[in-house]
Amino acid sequence: MSSSVSKTNHFYLKVQPSRYLGALLLLFYLGALILLWIVPISVWIKLGLSILLIWDGRRHWRRYVSRVEAQAVQWLIWHGEGEWSLWQMGGEHIAHLQLLQSVNHPLLIVLNFTRRHYLVLLPDSGDTDQLRKLRVLLRHSLNDLD
Fold first, then answer.
1. Are 49 and 33 in contact (CB under 8 A)?
2. What are the residue ranges spanned by the domains of the chain?
3. Radius of gyration in angstroms for the set of CA atoms belonging to the chain, rounded to a whole number
4. pTM score, whole prediction
């Protein structure tokens, strides 16, 4: 594929809130809280760690499930030539990202970009057809690296 063609064929994915991700976050954080209270340690330590778990769970919920934080990714864009960008809910555009690693499975897509940005996509995180196109794009780009 020539450079001029790949630069004009952008791929856009509007990232949507995921109920599956919400269920997983609830499962993990509630499980951690239950296990914390089973462990035989001081009540004050349990309270402190419980507050930290609840705070962190709320932060992750707002960013990745309800998507109300400004840092939540709203758009994923592939520009071609291995260049990606992210648009966040607060309007910030993070450009010139390179994909370092990816997990490409029909039930889960994990994208790990440069500059410590990552994106977890489950089957309800976007339009079904666009997620399928993203999996094909990732598979195709992996074959180009070999």
1. no
2. 3-15+73-145, 20-65
3. 18
4. 0.81
